[in-house]
Amino acid sequence: MKASVRDADYTLMPLLFGLTFISGLVDAVSFLRLGHTFVANMTGNLVLLAFAIGGAKGISITGSLTAIAAFMVGGIIGGRLNRRHGENGAHLLSVTTFVKIFLMLGAAAIAWLFGYQGVIAYVITAVLAISMGLQNAVVRGIGVADITTTVVTQTIIGIAMDSTLAGGTNTRWRRRVTAVVVMFAGALIGAVIVLRLGVPAALLAAALTLAIVSTWAWRLKQITQPQP
Question: What span, in angstroms and rounded, lies between the C-alpha atoms of 81 and 75?
């Protein structure tokens, strides 16, 4: 039987915060250097696509469409992984992050060898969006409350509506605030690395973070996996 959300909350939260950090980092890469597109935040991407169709300059229609389509491909892969490995959240995250490491390294290699202009930008966008679609689908399948790892809109409104000022009891405020801060930190660090060291360095930083998360998930899997 799949572990309950209650059981998974505290054991998986550090891993999910790590993935949240990566979301902010790769969106910094894609927005600042890949034609003002998002590869993790599809809500923002959809709005940008509408702006571009409406005539706004500096926003790539092709880039936005590429990101959305590739994100859905990643979601399909994530759905299959959920159905195959979803009984153990740590194992599922271990497999997912292992796959994501290769995608991130592949994107970094492409950027380093060929740059990130023109068609190459779309290729890198597609690789990153597949990675983030995969992540989003898997995290959705695990279902830890308030941590989607790719958007924090509902998290922020949860902080507000459940606050003391709104007559609430500050439900899960620590994890909610942490998710917002981690997303911000990922985007900030991503922007600094991209602007000072370039896209390959930022993607290598994302791959390194994934390696840490993957190792942690694998060790957690060894602890939580039932013994024969």
Answer: 10
How many C-beta neighbours within 10 Å does residue 17 have?
21
Tell me how many helices (H) and strands (E) the chain has: 8, 0
Find where tokens 């936005």 sit.
Answer: 64
How far is Cα 2 from Cα 181, in angstroms, rounded to an integer?
A: 29
Amino acid at 156: I
Are the C-beta atoms of 207 and 179 separated by less than 8 Å? no
Cα–Cα distances in angstroms (integers) from residue 206 to residues 16, 51, 76, 94, 136, in the given order: 14, 29, 22, 16, 16
Q: Which pLDDT tens digit goes with each residue over 37-94?
A: 999 999 999 999 999 999 999 899 999 999 999 999 999 999 999 888 767 888 899 9
**What one-letter code names the amino acid at 208?**
L
Instruction: Encode 29-94 in three state secondary structure.
Output: HHHHHCCCCCCCCHHHHHHHHHHHHCCCCCCCHHHHHHHHHHHHHHHHHHHHHHHHHCCCHHHHHH
For residue 62, CA distances in Å to 38, 57, 76 come to 12, 13, 21
What CA–CA distances, in Å, run from 144 to 44, 107, 188, 198? 23, 29, 25, 34
Q: Which fold has domain 5-218?
A: Growth Hormone; Chain: A; (1.20.1250)
